[in-house]
Specification:
By secondary structure, this protein is mainly α. It has one domain. The protein is built from six helices and no strands. Helix 1 packs across helix 3, helix 1 runs antiparallel to helix 4 and helix 2 packs antiparallel against helix 3. The longest helix is centred in the middle third of the chain and has 29 residues. It is globular. The C terminus is likely disordered.
Length: 196
């Protein structure tokens, strides 16, 4: 269960962090405000992904948020500290644009390091009945009743698959941009179908 809890937490953190980096880069912000919005959004998305199943299971918003804050804060904080440190340490990663191989490889390394750092935190908490142990039973609960059945719940595996696909997509676009030349080749006429 520690692996699942860590992957679930990593997914929320990654969604928030990448969103923050996209915003900061698009706005041309320097590193400090970009990191600040990335960390804030990582906590928001991390908490959101844990809160939705609790709401669907019938918990009130306040009760769900109290459980999630107690369950996820240590894991999210560990991940954010580690992955931001890794991004700062990797030469050029923080200055790299979104269409840059260094950015996407750096993010992959940072998220892997964050997973490795947060896994023992989650395992420690689970063994003591804390962390995701507080909310796990609610995540496996009912499909929701009334309007709550429309609250989305995402399986950890599906979230991880989407995250990996997004990261690989960013890397592939960056590789294509790096090695594809000026990018105007698509506008050039071709001789396909022309007979001499």
């Amino acid at each position: 269960m520690a692996v699942s809890a860590t992957l679930h937490c990593l997914t929320g953190c990654a969604i928030g962090e990448i969103t923050g980096l996209l915003i900061g880069t698009a706005a041309g912000w320097p590193n400090v405000p970009t990191i600040a919005i990335s960390v804030a959004l990582a906590f928001c998305f991390g908490y959101l992904l844990s809160t939705l199943p609790l709401l669907k299971a019938g918990l009130a918003v306040g009760a769900a948020l109290r459980l999630v804050l107690a369950a996820d804060t240590a894991s999210i904080a560990t991940m954010e500290l580690v992955d931001n440190l890794v991004m700062v340490i990797i030469p050029g990663a923080m200055e790299a644009g979104l269409v840059n191989i260094v950015f996407w490889v750096g993010m992959m390394i940072a998220f892997a390091a964050a997973f490795v750092a947060a896994f023992p935190v989650n395992r420690f908490l689970l063994r003591r009945g804390k962390g995701h142990a507080l909310i796990h039973g609610h995540h496996e609960a009912s499909a929701g009743e009334g309007a709550r059945r429309f609250i989305p719940s995402f399986r950890t595996g599906a979230l991880v698959a989407v995250l990996v696909a997004f990261m690989l997509g960013g890397l592939i676009v960056s590789i294509a941009d790096e090695f594809g030349g000026s990018g105007d080749h698509a506008a050039q006429p071709t001789n396909a179908g022309v007979h001499s």
